[in-house]
Automatic annotation (TrEMBL):
GO CC terms in record: plasma membrane
InterPro entries noted in UniProt: Pra-immunoreactive, RDD
Keywords from the named record: Cell membrane, Membrane, Transmembrane, Transmembrane helix
Protein name: Putative RDD family membrane protein YckC
Subcellular location: Cell membrane
Length: 164
């Protein structure tokens, strides 16, 4: 039996939001997921370094001390690299993927690598800039305003269409 009906990967309830700018709650949830990804990556790196130290000197092995300042600096560096690479290549981090979001440039296309890097640094150093997207009809964070980017609902891979 053949049907000419088009089957969409976007749930019927979500279709009106496809291409629209995302709000504070969805973006915050994506940010929390990305934060967990970064924490897991940093912990995995810590365990890997200590595993190598154990292999080199098993008898004198002790876990290295995780000092606060280097740990925070490492986590921020990992966060910036993770965000920059994700936004510059696919426009979405794992948190964005889970929440159906994509970061787009001013014309609705993929952000350039330099813009992705600046946005990642801005987001890592000033995460409270996200709160600005709670007001206004454009749902723009401070980072979006400064770099002319947007975060939109986008469940369709490879297709970017932005609506107001």
């Amino acid at each position: 039996m053949r049907t000419d009906e088009h089957v969409s990967i976007v749930p019927r309830e979500a279709q009106p939001y496809q291409g629209r700018r995302a709000g504070l709650v969805t973006r915050s949830l994506a940010g929390v997921i990305d934060g967990v990804v970064v924490v897991v990556a940093v912990l995995a790196g810590y365990l890997a370094v200590n595993g190598l130290r154990f292999l080199v000197n098993p008898r004198g092995f002790q876990f290295s001390e995780a000092s606060p300042l280097p740990s925070v600096a490492t986590a921020l560096l990992v966060l910036v690299v993770y965000l920059c690479v994700a936004w510059a290549t696919t426009g979405r981090t794992y948190g964005c993927h889970v929440m159906g979001l994509r970061v787009v440039g001013r014309h609705g296309g993929r952000v350039r690598p330099v813009v992705a890097l600046l946005r990642a640094v801005f987001c890592a150093l000033f995460p409270l800039g996200l709160l600005l997207c709670a007001g206004g009809r454009h749902h723009s964070s401070l980072q979006d305003l400064a770099l002319r980017t947007s975060v939109i609902y986008d469940w369709r891979p490879g297709q970017i269409t932005m609506r107001s």
